[in-house]
């Protein structure tokens, strides 16, 4: 068993930075006003597939979905699955709503909004704590804030408390996907996951398994920017929840 104590979501540090950036465009604001209330997470009670979508289905959870392109692409790819995304940054929420609505920045999209997506504007761990243990089929943490300074390491999402929660919420055989282009965060994350080998199996046989984006893993804008602008290498990690 792990030698550390499982993380209590009521005592974990705030693991994100700013919550608002530049003013929203008119189309984005319209979606925040009209679409978000329709697909927002309920404020109370256990979070289950039945409660969100009216039927049982594989459940996915994305922590800090950024602009929402990965979440929306996966939801469009897997219409029979339910997707939950949490993001504290309102500009990211607004952009995700554009993707959910069909890629147009107005409330009257060309196609109906994706019916299998629910969004929480706020802290992911607060929502994750309300999901019954063993409920998730997939959990995603893609390009999280690296908090690169050593004194800020405790604010990284990849730490023992959150990872214990990830393990608890994933069903046996469920998959945790993690991606980063930040070398410091990469080393930190690998050290953390090495302490959780009783809970997770790293799905990796060769370096190509973490150096090349796997199939069914849509590219995020952060990943594209890391490559094109900063010339960073990007790493991809898949872990299976042991049962």
List keywords for this structure.
Rossmann fold; seven-stranded mixed sheet; globular; disordered N terminus; 10 helices; 243 residues; alpha/beta
Task: Describe the secondary-structure layout.
Layout lengths: L25 H9 L1 H4 L9 H5 L5 E5 L5 H9 L4 E5 L3 H12 L15 E4 L3 H5 L7 E7 L17 H10 E11 L2 H12 L5 E3 L5 H4 L9 H8 L6 E7 L2
Parallel strand pairs: 1-2, 1-4, 2-3, 4-5
Antiparallel strand pairs: 5-7, 6-7
What can you see in these coordinates?
S-adenosyl-L-methionine binds at residues 62, 87, 123, 145. It catalyses: guanosine(46) in tRNA + S-adenosyl-L-methionine = N(7)-methylguanosine(46) in tRNA + S-adenosyl-L-homocysteine. Pathway: tRNA modification; N(7)-methylguanine-tRNA biosynthesis. Keywords: Methyltransferase, S-adenosyl-L-methionine, Transferase, tRNA processing. Catalyzes the formation of N(7)-methylguanine at position 46 (m7G46) in tRNA. By secondary structure, the protein is α/β, with parallel strands linked by helices. The chain has one domain (54-241): 3-Layer(aba) Sandwich (Rossmann fold). It contains ten helices and seven strands. It has a seven-stranded mixed sheet with strand order 3-2-1-4-5-7-6, sandwiched between helices. The longest helix is centred in the middle third of the chain and has 12 residues, at 90-101. The protein is globular and about 45 Å long. Residues 1-18 and 104-109 have low confidence and may be disordered.
């Amino acid at each position: 068993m792990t030698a550390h104590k499982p993380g209590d979501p009521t005592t974990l540090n705030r693991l994100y930075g700013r919550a608002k950036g530049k003013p929203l465009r008119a189309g984005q604001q319209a979606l925040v006003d009209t679409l978000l209330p329709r697909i927002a997470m309920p404020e109370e009670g256990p979070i289950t597939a039945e409660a969100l979508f009216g039927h049982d289905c594989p459940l996915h959870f994305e922590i800090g979905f950024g602009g929402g392109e990965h979440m929306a692409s996966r939801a469009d790819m897997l219409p029979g699955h339910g997707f939950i995304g949490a993001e504290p940054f309102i500009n990211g929420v607004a952009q995700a709503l554009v993707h959910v609505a069909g890629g147009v920045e107005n409330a009257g999209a060309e196609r109906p909004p994706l019916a299998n997506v629910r969004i929480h504007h706020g802290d992911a761990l607060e929502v994750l704590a309300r999901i019954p243990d063993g409920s998730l089929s997939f959990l995603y943490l893609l390009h999280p804030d690296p908090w690169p300074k050593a004194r800020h390491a405790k604010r990284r999402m990849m730490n023992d408390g959150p990872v214990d929660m990830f393990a608890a919420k994933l069903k046996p055989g469920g998959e945790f996907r993690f991606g980063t282009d930040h070398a410091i965060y990469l080393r930190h994350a690998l050290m953390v996951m090495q302490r959780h080998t009783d809970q997770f199996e790293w799905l990796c046989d060769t370096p190509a398994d973490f150096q090349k984006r796997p199939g069914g893993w849509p590219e995020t804008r952060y990943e594209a920017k890391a490559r094109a602008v900063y010339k960073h290498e990007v790493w991809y990690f898949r872990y299976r929840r042991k049962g």
